[in-house]
Amino acid sequence: MPVDYIPRTRDLYNDFTPYRWVVNETVPFTPLKKPIAECKVAMISSGGMMYRDQPRFHREDSSYRRIPKNARRDELNVWHFGYPTHDAEQDPNCVFPLERLRELEAAGVIGELIDPVFSFMGGIYSTRKVRDELAPKIVDELQRAHADAFYLVPA
Amino acid sequence: MTSALDITQSVKAPRAVFVNFPLGHQTGKPNEPELQRQIVADAMRAFDTITRPGTIVELPYVWDANDRTWEHRDYTKGWMPERPPHDLADAMEAERIARYSRP
Question: What is the pLDDT of residues B14-55, one digit of tens each?
């Protein structure tokens, strides 16, 4: 059975003010205009990836990192306080499947992987920060890159 | 993708793919590129196959057929390893920055 993370979060953070979960009534949906094999695909990971000497994240951090799509594994680092990062440090593809996406692009499964790929650190308590600070900047990146599809990978 | 089905059902993302793995492994296990590739390929395919808004496709991959204890421990008190003390973390961070500044 899939884990229910909402009650787990309540228990884990029961010393804090109860978190107000986002509850939406409607689903925003835009059908894809083309098969994914013809699409320019952008990727973002909330796993806290950094490229080379890019600054580390901190709690409540609404910044994001732009990571070259040809980054080597030894050029990637992880910082996140909200999940055990040991496996992602060993192999970033657990939460940031960059190498796999490059292969799928070469194999024609996706039209193109947009350069750069993106990462942020998803341990952000403030919904407002994500909605009003982080999301508009990412939307701007996607529009400038003419992304057809956006692949969001959680940690 | 989603690593927390109940949260995504509440948020009502346009379309999502779910893998029932412990947090920190939504696109697979370390150094298992074939599994990772299958997961990501399935996620890409879902872009073509999902037509009903709000659909969450659950992929069939199982973390460990013989051991489901992670499902009880994930995101509970004590599930995270000890964090390194501040000064060690800062030293590791300084080393990371220096590593990439070396010619």
Answer: 999 999 999 999 999 999 999 999 999 999 999 999 999 999
Interface test with B, best of A19, A29, A53 (most B CBs within 10 A): A29
Token pair 């390893």: residue? B81
Average pLDDT over residues A6-31: 92
Question: Min CA distance, A140 vs chain B (Å)?
Answer: 19
Could A36 and B44 be called an inter-chain contact, meaning their C-beta atoms sit closer than 8 Å? yes
Is residue B103 pLDDT above 80, yes or no?
Answer: no
CB contact under 8 A, B3 and A86: no
Question: How many Cβ atoms from other residues are within 10 Å of residue A7's Cβ?
Answer: 11
**Which runs of consecutive H residues, i.e. helices, occur in B3-85?**
5-11, 33-49, 70-73
Q: Which residues of A touch B76 (CB under 8 A)?
A: 8, 11-12
Residue A123 confidence (pLDDT) = 93
Give φ, ψ of A151 to 5 degrees.
-100, 110
Q: For A108, list phi and psi in degrees, rounded to 5.
A: 80, 15
Reduced to 3 states (helix: H, G, I; strand: E, B; else coil), residue A132 is helix
Predicted-complex ipTM score = 0.96
Chain A residue with Cα closest to B1: A153
Calculate how close chain A gets to B97, using CA atoms only, in Å. 5
Distance CA A80, CA A75 (A): 17
With a cut of 90, say whether residue A18 has pLDDT above it: no
User: What are φ and ψ of residue A122, in 5° steps?
Assistant: -75, 0
